[in-house]
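User: Sequence in, structure out. Go.
Assistant: Echoing your sequence, followed by the structure tokens.
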Amino acid sequence: VDEVARDKVLAAVDELQPARIVFLGDVVHAPRPDPRERELVDSTLRELGNSALLTVVLGNHDRGFARDFAHLGLELVRRWEGDGLVGLHGDKPPDAGERKLLVGHLHPALSIRDDAGASQRIPAFLIGPRAYVLPAFSPFAVSTVPTGAFHTSVP
């Protein structure tokens, strides 16, 4: 979490007023966050928890999350299920049966190139018949431009 990501998520929560917020993993950038990142994550989760129930689907960067943030009393899971959906981090092959998947980790993006040859990656949602792959919320996450192989790995 950085200040920009914090401000974006707080603004979205303020506008949408959700009863529950489910993070699909990699809440921290590094498995052992430095004190500044740890404090920012801690204060952000505390603030969000004042208005919504928080669930964290543990991701591959969250190896020490349960230990480092145990004092927050968050619901920590490997997969989240609700309303006919299954929320997964996405670093392992999915198994959700017939339910629709919500997946993080893959960070889909569109690559936009102008006539001068300058390009930019824009985070994007990837929607398939059985899955929604969510874009990265953090500026630290490298976005992936989908290719044929990418499409065949998403249900």
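User: And one key feature?
Assistant: The radius of gyration is 16 Å.
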